[in-house]
Design a protein that fits this description.
Blueprint lengths: L1 E2 L4 H6 L9 H5 L26 H14 L3 H5 L5 H21 L1 E2 L1 H21 L7 H19 L13
Antiparallel strand pairs: 1-2
């Protein structure tokens, strides 16, 4: 098994981050030793979902649980810039824990990093670092990544993110 230590350079290679990448992922860059390139799009593993580990499952649930309760305020434009920034910081920290602790095979790892790249791009928007995307657009990116995640990763008990809760 390989550690989920594909980080900033892989994410940049995937072309999914702005130049102001998430600090929590940048810290991990010194651990990146994989030479292969990242895949261009999410795909299944021979028609099956990719295996997950406890660190990944716990981390993705945490990210979902951080975003979910904020959705009504985001949707109704009631979240203040400092609240968006705080949410971005919390999600970035959780992504750092996922990257540091999960163990997946190299192909599952590559797929995971496409999801993490989308979330990281979203946190850039949330934090106000990507004005073109915007804070609301950043939340949408993270929401979509959380929608896509269970379609490609085997995560028993995953609860879909929803505006309805």
């Amino acid at each position: 098994m390989r550690r989920c230590d594909r980080t900033l350079s892989t994410l940049l290679f995937a072309g999914m981050l702005s130049s102001t990448a998430a600090p929590s992922l940048a810290v991990q860059d010194s651990h990146h030793h994989h030479g292969e390139g990242a895949p261009a799009a999410l795909s299944l593993h021979d028609g099956a979902k990719w295996k997950t580990d406890e660190t990944l499952r716990r981390g993705m649930e945490t990210i979902r649980n951080l975003l979910q309760p904020q959705l009504p305020a985001i949707h109704n434009d009631r979240l203040k810039p400092n609240q968006y920034a705080g949410l971005a910081s919390q999600i970035d920290a959780e992504m750092g824990r996922i990257v540091a602790g999960c163990k997946l095979d190299k192909d599952a790892d590559a797929m995971l990093h496409l999801v993490l790249a989308e979330i990281s791009a979203g946190t850039e928007g949330l934090a106000g670092k990507n004005r073109q995307l915007g804070r609301h657009g950043g939340a949408v990116k993270i929401y979509r990544a959380l929608e896509n995640y269970p379609a490609y990763f085997d995560h028993p008990g995953w609860r879909a993110i929803s505006h309805q809760e």
